[in-house]
Structure prediction request, 552 residues.
Amino acid sequence: MPVKLIQSTASAYSYPLLIKQLLLTPLAIAPEQVISYQDRIRYTYRDFSRRLGRLANGLAALGIESGHTVAVMDWDSHRYLECFFAVPMMGAVLQTVNIRLSPEQILYTVNHARADILLVNAEFLPVLAAIAPKLETVKTFVLIADDGVPADLPVTFASEYEAMLSGASEEYTFPDFNENAQATVFYTTGTTGMPKGVYFSHRQLVLHTLGVAAAMGGAPEQGRLHREDVYMPLTPMFHVHAWGFPYVATMMGLRQVYPGRYQPDVLCRLIVEEKVSFSHCVPTILHMVLSHPIARDVDFSGWKIVIGGSAMPESMAVAALTRGIDLFGGYGMSETCPVLTLAHISRADLQRPIAEQATLRCKTGRPLPLVDLRIVDPDMHDTAHDGQATGEVVVRSPWLTQGYLAAPEASEDLWAGGYLHTADIGNINPAGYLKVTDRIKDVIKVAGEWTSSLQMEDIIAKHEAVQEVAVIGVPDEKWGERPLALVVLKPDHAEHVTEHAIRNFAAHGIEAAGISRYGVLLQVSFVKRLLKTSVGKMNKQGMRADRSALYV
Prediction:
């Protein structure tokens, strides 16, 4: 029997889920709330709305219209937030350019996205000079200058950002259109080949915003996001829309602080002066902040942080909790917009000792509303939710990318069997908490048995001398593969700790944790640094490819 469709009254408003609808609530309830960029600029949500109109008119005057692509190269700023809204609200597509990629990769992504205009912070003029002659579709450039226009410019700029806005009218009627229209595109930070384009629609971004807000607001106490919070992103705005939280913060009318380039002393100062209470980042950024000398005298109590992007060591969680930081895990990927799960814990669990809380907070959490998340075997059969049985994490939700830009084969692989394949291995416990135990490509196969690199890293990271660690599989004639721990020591321990001591420490922890008996075959090598991707994740594929040249 066919379903019965709702018949719409001719004059009824269909209400497409467009990004512009996220502005209705803050402008109604918090028009005088403040958005700031470092200590350079401070304005209200009402001013923000007016600047959106000026930006849209400025871009339109330069020929940008519905369907065009506007590429942006900037640090985290109020300008980026304005582009998050005004560009897609015009019906155009926002490309957030990963400025930490190589010039060759930046050139590839801008050309692949067929960008029509490029907004460039003056700090990236050397990159622009290198790629400008090879840009295929970009014909117009807008300069972003915090400290005046430089004398020598590599291209002819149509305008400077603030000059463009000051010369434009604030009156702009953002139109209604199909909610499935593309709003954004950005490129994955893969470790092999060229980056892949990931794109999202207005509908997907609005539903992701609502899903995250519902999950964050549904927390009874720990990790709860509310209207009196002060938000500062520590995930780059070029990376998955800063995990979508700028849209959430704006919809809720939060006080917002944008830090520009991530400098630990600046971040610490902003946390104190602006009373920042909510952020999100990868573990390496938190480590960078907490290990800076100025951080020793900073009161971090009341600061809530979602940790994602890579596994959070329990030792880091304990150290942060001891400083009064309310940190907890989240999970997602570029292709999922990205948030799928959050590791909120119950009031009862908050009474546990810090070490026990850390174990729970380091899990990747429970699914957000509207997220259908499964752990499956190679035949797509569900595994037991007993906290032990592992399989691949596959997922459905209304905000997952439908594929990769102009890459049909990769898109089909991503959605094989009607679920998005994350290529992550994990388990789910009886309470519904997901624990990602490894990436499929990073699991180490010793004598035919799978061994989790993340579990071993977590054990080694608990040693008092260890600053950072990555465990990778290396070829072995007898065992097929053997785990190798690449360890960065804390400066004050570098001359007093031996590889043998770390190996013995790890062996006891591996045995106590019940990890595969082959984990005791672990080798240890001290290194000066660990290779990371452009967004701060461990680049294990690169580490496996060239250990000697890159790390020792």
In short: The chain has three domains: 19-200, 262-377+423-439, 444-551. The chain has a mean pLDDT of 93. The first strand starts at residue 34 and ends at 37.
